[in-house]
Amino acid sequence: MIVGEQKKIAEIKELVEPYRKILILGCGTCVKTCFAGGEDEVSTVASALRLALSIEGKEIAVEELTVERQCEDEFIQEAAEAIARSEVVLSIACGAGVQDIAKSFPKVPVLPGVNTTFIGILEKHGLFTEECLGCCDCKLALFGSVCPIARCSKKLLNGPCGGSKDGTCEVDPAIDCAWQLIIDRLKELGQLHTLKSYVEPKDWRRSNAGGPRKLVRQDHII
Amino acid sequence: MNKQFKLKITVFHCINTFSDAGNVQRGGDETTEINFIALPCSSMVKDVFLLRAFEAGADAVIVMVCPEGACRYVEGNLRAKRRVMWVQNVLDDIGLGGRRLTLFNVAPGDEKAIVKIIEETRADVAALGPSPAHYVARLA
Predict the structure, then answer these.
(1) How many CA atoms lie within 13 A of B35 on its CB side?
(2) Tens-place pLDDT, residues A92-125
């Protein structure tokens, strides 16, 4: 899922300050799961904003709404009436959601309430970890399904680097050494020999380094 | 503090800390209004409930939870504690002050402790003054 964290209320307050009628729009998928942009967070941000502005003697009309996904037009349209009633939308979805709302409603300013962080997993309740960079050339099969691109601090395809200590990374001991994880996993699978093969340098043009990407599925386009 | 203000304190509490504390002054007195909100477990107190208590005019909010290790639902009181810490940060962030929100572990039926907590909070809030969030509204 896309993991994000809510911006500080003080920053959000600054963003919405010029407006008096605001729609706080949540997203019920990824950012809900990471406690950044679901129904609960919409209510919390709304309440905190009203309080913050009331301290300054200002009033703001806040409407609250959460759609299933802000990255699909079908769901976005459910917010059309609420958006029409508002001067501005504070989207607490990921960056994709914010931009899709902006595309759909070109005359309404759309502001971000969340810092989109990474593609990751819920490792345990309250802990999210980065697992994928979306590089568009998945080599997980070579590495026992542990991604050295996303999880090795040095992004080494032919590791380990030699700086690993007690299974942790020399860059930060709080980071598990991806190469230790790769070796442990391949040992467990009886596939350690796969590491004898040299892995060619990656073609980063397929990743974001080659500019914004598009995925076209002709079989779904009419 | 300015004498024209009547302090307002909202108390969220787990029903296992107390359900009917006879000696606890439920309605407050001429200087303080106290509202008690009973919850089946303190972990039911969401961030937004705490914030909305302040929106509703509370000068201070207290969350009373069972002692650590004594939660009927194992970790409800711990979850409430983390949540309160989170909202304290939000209150600091918006300029209301996290000190206005406090959490206390209370043994079941310990009415003396409850009365003491309320008294101390009353003194603390009297020193802090009324919540700046509704200061303007109160003067109007």
Answers:
(1) 14
(2) 999 999 999 999 999 999 999 999 999 999 999 9
Q: Which residues on A lie below 8 Å from B48 (Cβ)?
A: 40, 43-44, 47
**What residue ranges do the domains of chain B occupy?**
7-139
CB within 8 Å of chain B, chain A residues 1-30? 8-10, 13
Q: Classify domain B7-139 by CATH number.
A: 3.40.50
Kindly provide the ipTM of the predicted complex, given to two decimals: 0.88
For chain A, list the domains and their CATH numbers.
2-118 (3.40.50.2300), 133-209 (no CATH)
Any A CB within 8 A of B137 CB = yes
Q: What is the pTM of this model?
A: 0.91
Measured distance CA(B109)–CA(B60) in Å, rounded:
23
Tell me whether the omega of the peptide bond preceding residue B40 falls within 30 degrees of 0, making it cis: no
User: How distant, in Å, are the alpha carbons of A92, A113, A118, B26, B120 from that of A12?
Assistant: 10, 6, 21, 38, 34
Beta bridge partners of A132: A119
Average pLDDT over residues B62-73: 94
Question: Locate tokens 């991604």: which residue?
Answer: A147
Beta carbons within 10 angstroms of residue B5's beta carbon: 16
Which residues in chain B are closer than 8 Å to A47, comparing Cβ atoms? 48, 51-52, 55
